[in-house]
Specification:
mainly beta; 492 residues; five-stranded antiparallel β-sheet; five-stranded mixed β-sheet
Length: 492
């Protein structure tokens, strides 16, 4: 019985096959020429921020052949280069060849899939390779820029691992940080384990957060509100930021609130209180890095001091700086910390006299805490009222010289002559000055940085060194071309 069933099935199948073979008019077969991606892509290594360029010789196999190929028309296909990141996959390109600046996190390997799809049939072929991303930059200047609409971005001028200078733009926008509007308020670089290691703190007119370094990468959780002692549904827009050490970092809001980040890695609530009375602080920091901080109370027009303690804490109360009666009811024009840890403040007192005040930290014999102390004050004579008209101000960190800008002119208050004069820079004609900066980095603490911008020449940053005996005389050490108008500078 089984034998006959088998014979019957064979006979039936044979008839079906014959009918299919004979009925050519009713059945049509379109054979797809296979795209040959054999050995097209190989594992490769690229420095983060560098351009990865891969050209593909697109070929398809001839019908009825295993080895012979012919050139394929790219117009007949679509293409996709996709990096598999483990989270959100990244499309690197959609052309036959790949030309893309790689911003994937360094120190990782990624599988990149190259997909070729025939438009006519929808058939796809996929080839993959391993992409190793390494850090191609050792360190350098970080410039925070803004355009005419006050949209913010970041550029770097840095050294690569081979000792070459590189200039890159668009790092903030490419990081995914979404709060790019409202102007460039402040940036700061830190490398503190309690604060998450290497970070670039970013404060725009919309919000404040940080990028993970050295990749300049951002995640949703990288926002200042996420490390607040009492989280609030606000953006925490900071006007200025000052990193003092691995113990303290001060954040100032435009409204006059101050938040302190300590070694505990938590951002404090507003600390601007004296004897439980709230005040609004000017967005400037004075004091030293570990003993005491000096703030300016804009409401009562006075300087106050906070004692800082080991472990990243401040005392619960702050106090008036002694000898404050010597500069009562003053308006603060500018304040800055020097390399010596002394602090210089430029004020206009109640009599309309401009004063240069210098503070240091002394230890209170009774409490044992350090306090701000007014060491000296000096009347600024001549046409010192120019200082009040300054658009940007900075104090040379080594010598304590005062510099300020109006339009495209850079001025200094010349001690001894006691007048505001334009600096001497032979052969240098500034475009409109858009910021003045100094930095604490040991290699550059002797410099002041003048940033200019014009539509014709774009941005420029002049690194200048003042002559120690005459603030008028400066040497141009370096001129750095930038794409945008540089508002803030830091170094990593």
């Amino acid at each position: 019985m089984i034998r006959y069933i088998t014979i019957g099935l064979i006979t039936l199948l044979t008839g079906m096959l014959n009918s299919c073979y004979e009925d050519k008019g009713h059945y049509k077969y379109d054979w797809v020429q296979e795209i040959d991606l054999t050995d097209v892509l190989k594992d490769t290594t690229v420095g983060r921020g560098n351009v990865l360029h891969i050209e593909v010789d697109l070929k398809k196999r001839l019908l009825d052949s295993e080895n012979e190929t012919e050139v394929a028309n790219p117009d007949d296909y679509t293409f996709e280069w996709k990096a598999l990141t483990g989270e959100e996959n990244v499309i690197l390109g959609t052309d036959k060849d790949l030309t893309d600046t790689i911003w994937l996190a360094s120190g990782n390997s990624y599988q990149v899939n190259y997909t070729v799809t025939e438009k006519k049939t929808g058939v796809s072929w996929i080839s993959d390779f391993k992409l190793n991303v390494v850090e191609g930059v050792k360190g350098g200047f970080i410039f925070m820029t803004e355009d005419t609409d006050r949209k913010v971005d970041i550029e770097i001028y840095a050294d690569d691992t081979e000792g070459n200078k590189i200039h890159r733009t668009g790092l903030l926008s490419s990081s995914g940080f979404p709060y790019l509007s409202g102007g460039a308020n402040s940036i700061a670089y830190t490398n503190v384990r309690a604060w998450g290691g290497r970070r670039l703190w970013v404060a725009t007119g919309e919000a404040s957060g940080w990028l993970d370094m050295p990749d300049f990468s951002w995640k949703d959780k990288n926002m200042l509100r996420m490390i607040m002692l009492t989280p609030q549904p606000v953006s925490y827009t900071m006007k200025s930021m000052y990193c003092l050490s691995d113990q303290f970092m001060y954040f100032f809001t435009a409204e006059g609130n101050v938040h302190l980040l300590t070694s505990r890695g938590i951002l404090s609530a507003d600390i601007t209180y004296v004897n439980n009375r709230k005040f609004q602080a000017a967005p400037y920091y004075g004091g030293d890095n570990s003993h005491a901080a000096i703030l300016f109370d804009r409401d009562r027009r006075r300087f106050v001091s906070y004692a800082m303690q080991a472990g990243g804490m401040v005392t619960e109360s702050c106090y008036d700086i002694d000898d404050n009666s010597a500069i009562p009811n003053s308006d603060l024009l500018y304040m800055q910390q020097l390399s010596s840890m002394n602090t210089v403040a430029i004020v206009k007192d109640e009599d309309g006299i401009y004063q240069r005040c210098q503070f240091s930290m002394i230890r209170n014999s009774t409490s044992g805490s350090y306090e701000g102390h007014l060491d000296q004050k000096e009347e600024l004579k001549g046409y010192a009222a120019m200082i009040e008209d300054a658009e940007y101000t900075v104090i040379d960190k080594l010598n304590g010289f005062l510099y300020f800008s109006i339009g495209n002119k850079l001025y200094t208050y010349r001690k001894g002559i006691d007048e505001c004069v334009e600096v001497n820079l032979q052969g240098v004609n500034f475009d409109p000055i858009v910021s003045l900066n100094v930095m604490a980095h040991n290699d550059y603490k002797a410099n002041i940085f003048v940033a200019t911008y014009s539509e014709t020449n774009k941005g420029k940053v002049y690194r200048l060194t003042p002559e120690s005996t005459d603030s008028r005389n400066l040497t141009v050490e370096e001129v750095i071309d930038t794409e945008g108008a540089v508002k803030c500078i830091t170094y990593w």
